[in-house]
């Protein structure tokens, strides 16, 4: 009876002993703050480099985040700069916490210590197939499971036999997606500018409509006057032909006229100096002429004396002589007027 009681006590104490000792040594208590833990269960495994190093001992709410308490074997020798990721063992497998050093960082020489808290900035949850199915269900918005099965079956039929090609395509698209990710602000700015341009076009819709309507009316007018325009073009063609023939016919004469004009211009250029001197002298004469005559007017008396010019003339001859003398007097009178105006 005492032997049976001892066995029962040993069996009852074994879980407590296992909880206190992990892997033959003492355990560390480490907390991690997660924004989303999904369906991570209590007592889920904690792994590092695909090796189990502990278990999840508690999950509680910490403000708007979840605090996950883990018991980790102290002999696991885990660096202190690890990050905590909630992952799945397979597509639909159980969840576990993966402790690993982020890519691009060197493992810290300092080891993970008891009571350490992994901050929110170094924790995340890797989406699994269940998340994709949930998003797909939201996308379908109330579709039945039969519709989902049809979609999955159709997708499988499309992809079947093209796995390698799709893998190569995804490999080639990876650099493109990186470029798009780097140029995301520029793309967003371009889209915003396009939106502003479309808004401006929308605001100017009436003006654009009137412009298009006016263009249509102008095109209709041109279409109605097509016959007149054709006739005008033909007339211009005929006129150009006539001008071409006229030019060909008068080429020699035009050449001679240009040559004569060139010779004339050459002589004019030679006499330019003399002409300039003459005009200067004439201007000086006109300027000095009034100063040489006192008073403000010129009086010119012309006395005509008729002397004995020979034998007496007949009446008709005398009349003709008188008319000639009168004309000469008028010419002299005109010259006197010209001189008077020039003096004034």
The N- and C-terminal alpha carbons lie at a distance of: 167 Å
Strand order of the largest sheet: 7-1-4-3-2-6-5-8
Mean pLDDT: 77
Q: Strand share of the residues?
A: 5-15%
In short:
The chain is of the alpha/beta class and 344 residues long.
Note down, in words, how this protein is organized:
- This protein is an alpha/beta fold and 344 residues long.
- 57% of the residues lie in helices and 15% in strands.
- It has helices spanning 2-20, 129-140, 145-159, 163-182, 184-203, 205-224, 226-249, 251-270, 272-288, 315-343; strands spanning 27-34, 45-48, 51-62, 65-73, 83-88, 95-100, 117-118, 123-125.
- An 8-stranded mixed beta sheet has the order 7-1-4-3-2-6-5-8, with no helix packed on it.
- The radius of gyration is 59 Å and the shape is elongated.
- The relative contact order is 0.05.
Q: Can you give keywords for this protein?
A:
344 residues, alpha/beta, disordered N terminus
Secondary structure layout plus pairing:
Blueprint: H1 2-20, E1 27-34, E2 45-48, E3 51-62, E4 65-73, E5 83-88, E6 95-100, E7 117-118, E8 123-125, H2 129-140, H3 145-159, H4 163-182, H5 184-203, H6 205-224, H7 226-249, H8 251-270, H9 272-288, H10 315-343
Parallel strand pairs: 1-7, 2-6, 5-8
Antiparallel strand pairs: 1-4, 2-3, 3-4, 5-6
């Amino acid at each position: 009876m005492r032997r049976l009681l001892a066995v029962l006590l040993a069996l009852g104490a074994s879980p407590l002993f296992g909880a206190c000792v992990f892997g033959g040594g003492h355990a560390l208590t480490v907390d991690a703050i997660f924004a989303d833990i999904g369906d991570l269960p209590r007592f889920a495994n904690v792994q590092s480099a695909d090796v189990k190093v502990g278990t999840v001992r508690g999950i509680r709410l910490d403000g708007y985040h979840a605090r996950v308490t883990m018991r980790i074997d102290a002999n696991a020798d885990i660096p202190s700069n690890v990050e905590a990721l909630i992952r799945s063992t397979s597509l639909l497998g159980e969840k576990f916490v993966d402790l690993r050093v982020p890519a691009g960082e060197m493992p810290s020489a300092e080891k993970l210590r008891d009571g350490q808290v992994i901050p929110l900035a170094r924790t995340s949850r890797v989406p699994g197939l269940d998340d994709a199915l949930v998003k797909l269900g939201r996308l379908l918005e109330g579709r039945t499971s039969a519709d989902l099965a049809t979609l999955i079956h159709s997708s499988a039929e499309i992809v079947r036999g093209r796995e390698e090609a799709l893998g190569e395509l995804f490999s080639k698209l990876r650099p493109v997606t990186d470029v798009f990710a780097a140029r995301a602000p520029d793309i967003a700015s371009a889209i915003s500018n396009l939106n502003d341009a479309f808004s401006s076009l929308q605001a100017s819709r009436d003006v654009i409509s009137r412009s298009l309507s006016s263009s249509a009316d102008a095109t209709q007018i041109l279409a109605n006057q097509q016959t007149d325009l054709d006739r005008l073009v033909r007339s211009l063609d005929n006129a150009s032909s006539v001008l071409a023939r006229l030019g060909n016919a008068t080429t020699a004469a035009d050449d001679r006229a240009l040559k004569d004009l060139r010779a004339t211009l050459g002589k004019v250029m030679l006499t330019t100096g003399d002409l300039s001197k003459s005009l200067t002298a004439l201007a000086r004469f006109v300027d000095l002429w009034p100063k040489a005559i006192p008073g403000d007017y010129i009086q010119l008396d012309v006395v005509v004396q008729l002397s004995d010019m020979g034998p007496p003339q007949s009446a008709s001859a005398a009349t003709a002589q008188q008319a000639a003398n009168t004309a000469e007097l008028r010419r002299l009178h005109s010259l006197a007027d010209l001189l008077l105006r020039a003096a004034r």
